[in-house]
Amino acid sequence: MIKLRLAIIATFFVLNSAFSQSAENTVNQSLEWFSVNSTMKVHPRVNIYGEVNLRFVRGFEAQQHQVRTAVEFVVLKNLTVTPIGYVYTWNYTYGKQPAAFANDEHRIYQQVVFRHAAGRVNFQHRARLEERFIQAHHLSSEGVTIGDEYNDKRERFRYRLLMTIPLNHEKIEANTVFLAMSDEIFASWGKNVTYHSPDQNRVFVGAGYQFTKLASVQAGAMYQMLKKANGLLQENNVGAMVQFTYNLDFTHEVKN
Q1: Containing domain of residue 56, as a range?
Q2: Does residue 87 lie within any of the structural domains?
Q3: Using CA atoms, how far apart are residues 256 and 254, in angstroms rounded to an integer?
Q4: What are the tens digits of pLDDT across the range 150-165?
Q5: What whole-number distance in Å separates Cα of residue 206 and Cα of residue 240?
């Protein structure tokens, strides 16, 4: 078990260093992210997913806010497929490299989640394909900002590996303290994307507490490498992320 934990930690350091190489026009900023999510089981094989993200940098300067919803199908006990999900994103002109305009975004996506375990270590693999429709703006002849249609279409692929390790129980159940580590990489393409190598990396290392079977909280250190679409500018954001989960099970039978 000790060797396995050391291997996991080493893997994260290697991934982190691979995506955080110094580059020209790179800025370093603090990061403060908060997330609330819920999986609502409406049928033994069907879930409705909901999520709200509030993301800030540099001491609560708004970076991005987001709402997400999706329909999930439980194909196997350890395999979940999302044929369609929807996201709306409010973007802001933030930080040391502000965009010219705050271009919001509609997004649809498809994903597959596979779970397995090795001893006390739980692994979750998530692959997601996104179709993004980003708003455009322009300045009128009078210098007034005018919002255009959401016609900047881009595609993106994401892969996340999440590992959780219970500390005070053999498995994650009610009243369990656990470690959580994840790494997610992003690759984008589209008419307005000129940088086609992985353009974003998110690494999280923290701890969590499982209050009940359906409720938990996680908190820890978050690192985000974000390379802009032209490949010339890059953000290295380091800070904290807090995530609260409260699931609902509408299939539970009440016994009299």
Answers
A1: 2-20+33-249
A2: yes
A3: 7
A4: 999 999 999 999 999 9
A5: 9
For residues 214 and 249, the answer to whether their CB atoms sit within 8 Å is yes
The total domain count for the chain is: 1
* CATH number for the domain that contains residue 113: 2.40.160
Residue range 116-144, pLDDT digits in tens:
999 999 999 999 999 999 998 878 777 77
- Domain assignment present for 188: yes
Please give the structure tokens belonging to residue 228.
Answer: 């802009």
Residue 214 C-alpha from the chain's centroid: 20
- Residue ranges with strand state E in the chain: 26-43, 46-57, 61-76, 79-91, 105-118, 121-134, 137-139, 145-147, 152-166, 176-190, 200-210, 215-227, 234-246, 248-249
Q: Cβ(18)–Cβ(10) under 8 Å?
A: no
Q: Helix (H, G, I), strand (E, B), or coil: what is residue 4?
A: helix
With respect to residue 256, please indicate whether it lies within any of the assigned structural domains.
Answer: no
Phi-psi region of 180 (alpha: psi -120 to 50; beta: other; left: phi over 0): beta
Q: Is residue 126 part of a domain?
A: yes
